[in-house]
Amino acid sequence: AQSVTQLGSHVSVSEGALVLLRCNYSSSVPPYLFWYVQYPNQGLQLLLKYTSAATLVKGINGFEAEFKKSETSFHLTKPSAHMSDAAEYFCAVSEDDMRFGAGTRLTVKP
Amino acid sequence: EAQVTQNPRYLITVTGKKLTVTCSQNMNHEYMSWYRQDPGLGLRQIYYSMNVEVTDKGDVPEGYKVSRKEKRNFPLILESPSPNQTSLYFCASSFRGGWETQYFGPGTRLLVL
User: Fold this and answer.
1) A59-99: per-residue pLDDT in tens?
2) B15 CA to chain A: closest CA distance, Å?
3) B72-95 residue pLDDT tens
4) Cα B43 from chain centroid (whole Å)
5) What is the CA radius of gyration of chain A?
6) Best mutation site among A2, A36, A44 for testing chain B: the one with the most B CBs within 10 Å?
7) Nearest to A94 among B35, B58, B98 (CB)
8) Do B104 and A100 touch (CB under 8 A)?
């Protein structure tokens, strides 16, 4: 059965520092992988998705993620954090339906 | 504007008092789904619908009902709410299936006393 594990429920970085949010997946077939972001008091919106084309996927707001099959990982990165990046981030995997991770709350310190 | 709407956004109720949370999408999507979000658990699927009159259970369906009489609407019904259903609820839709990009509503925060 498909599943995702997000390592770290809370991540704190300084403004301008690298953002790295970790996601490992379990899937019996090549999966579709997603990162969603949830800003306070809002629903989830898509950041980026992997659908077996390029392994490095670029998303909105300067985020990107790299699919590594050998490591079953799909970590999310951004070179330089902004205060506006503070939010909760969810990794998700889909085969026949979508399964979400528990989420990682990102805090950005001035 | 393409969107998923939910009503109400906030609801306080008492144990046993039936309630309905509405969900509507204007994107002509076939697939619609309900999730609940609880701290530390992420999103868990309650029910989903592949098309009109086609619904199926997700991971946590107990205590909930749904219906899909029209393509655009997918209401969530709590026949007899209990305090353990206090949660943040999201409706989502996608064009054809759960494996595709899903578009989420703004959420409904429910408190059951």
Assistant:
1) 999 999 999 988 999 999 999 999 999 999 999 988 777 88
2) 25
3) 999 999 999 999 999 999 999 999
4) 11
5) 13
6) A44
7) B98
8) no
